[in-house]
Amino acid sequence: MMASEHHGTGTILAPAPPARPLPRPRGRRWLVPLFVALLLAQMAAAMVTTAVRQTPTIDEPVYVVTATDYLHEHRLRYNPEHPPLGKLLIAAGIAVASPHYDPDTPGTQGDAGRHLLYESGNDPWRLMLWARLPVIALTLLGGLVVFAFARDLAGPVATVVALALYAFSPDVVAHGSLATLDMPMTVFLLTSVWLAWRARDRPRRYVPLAGAALGAAAATKMSALPAIPLLMLLAAWSVWHARAALGRRRRVLSALGSAGTVLLVALAVVWATYLVVDPRLGFAPAEPIPPLAGKRALVSGLLPLPPAYGEGLRMQFALEYNPWEGFLFGRLYTGALWYYLPVALLVKTPLGLLALGAAGAATVLALPRLRPAAPYVLLPPALLLAVAMTGARDFGTRYALFVPVFLALAGGCAALWRHRYAKALAGVLVLWVAVSSLRTFPHYLPYANEAFGGPARTHLLLHDSNVDWGQDLGALADRLRERYPGERVWLVYKGSGVPSSYGIRAGDPRTVPPERVRGLLVVSDSAVAKARGRLAELLRTSRPVGEVGHSITLYRR
After folding, report:
1. Per DSSP, what are the bridge partners of residue 492?
2. Which of 142-151, 224-233, 241-250, 344-353 comes out lowest in average pLDDT?
3. 113 CB-near residues (< 8 Å, 6+ apart)
């Protein structure tokens, strides 16, 4: 529409002022915050409920006693194979629980963990809940990072899709409700990538913060170390973009400076973490560090990190030489399969998340608006998964929790696909993920998607932390008390819990002749997967009569 202006005898047509946009209904402004609050609230409820019901998993007692030792003794004695930050997080909850602690407990770190939980007058249920709560809180904060990252990339619809995929991911909920290190490292890594992306607009603010988050990841688990050079490159690329108005030489120097800043800040965070535990940086491990030679020993000694970090890295390298046993799709093997993690992830990731994650990755690559984000969204999980696939320990998808997290982020971007039914299809897939996740509640560890038969069949395909990590000892005690009171029980349990502390009185069927094993035979599914010799014969001649938490099977003899 044109407006006319009269100047003398002529008429000039000028464009009319643009129409003011209609105001958006105020109610809609609250839709996204409402969805965010609801998603995080249900996630918190799922994780807290799971944390309350589960007994200690195999790794948790070691982390808990290490965190307690940090609080009481301020020394680097236990669990040197993992840096302190994740255990300092756990220590925040332990400080509230205020357990009785004997700092001179003899034996291994595992012995010290069991002594703290079961032999020191502490309530293991209460202590484990308080140890898990800080990890639950950090996992919820990770949801806010997913929300913010998706909003920066693709807008409000993408934020809801991405956060829903994150909040309903069974692996995220399972490990976010444990006092372990896998989920904290993943959250710190995701935060570092998001801050590196934001550095494209405000590099002076976000480059140091990206380095700090990266340092937090490396100060939680050493498996984050391969991400350091990648994040340096991403930060450099962000600054190169941000300094487009500068000359080429100054842009190069700015980019190199940002990469150096990320490295220096990350190293400073790692050093600070060790100094918080012991300002003298003393190191007196409870168990000897295995000997190591060759290139790996050289690398662990040359890193500009605290001596205890280098010794822990030597221990991690030494563990890679052990002949670990694996189990995949009914096959028991010694060593590692390079394709183990991708296959395990296919089993344990909801089908809707796989579909939306793949569609989102394609969207990021296809849409010009999103293409600049491709290195940030796709490269970190791809690199870390490739590195993890070279490891010697086929123990579970917890070594690759960053995959479902970044899949959720990419899945949010799929909502931008320019198709008539794109948003509706994304909504259906998100609903599928939610229903699949809620159906497994509260048994998230043994989750498997519908294509592989669901959580009831996971133990036939995978083992260890994919299924049975010792988490259902308390539930087993309840089952025996309610349904099998007074019966003779034989138990083969894989875990760190102490059965007698939960009222379970059972014998070990492997220590007596098979003909004496009569009554109820109870076996952890990981032990079933790896059964040989006498146990295999006992299982062959027994009849399954029930299961607990999809992780323990009951047999009648």
Report:
1. 523
2. 241-250
3. 60, 61, 62, 64, 65, 496
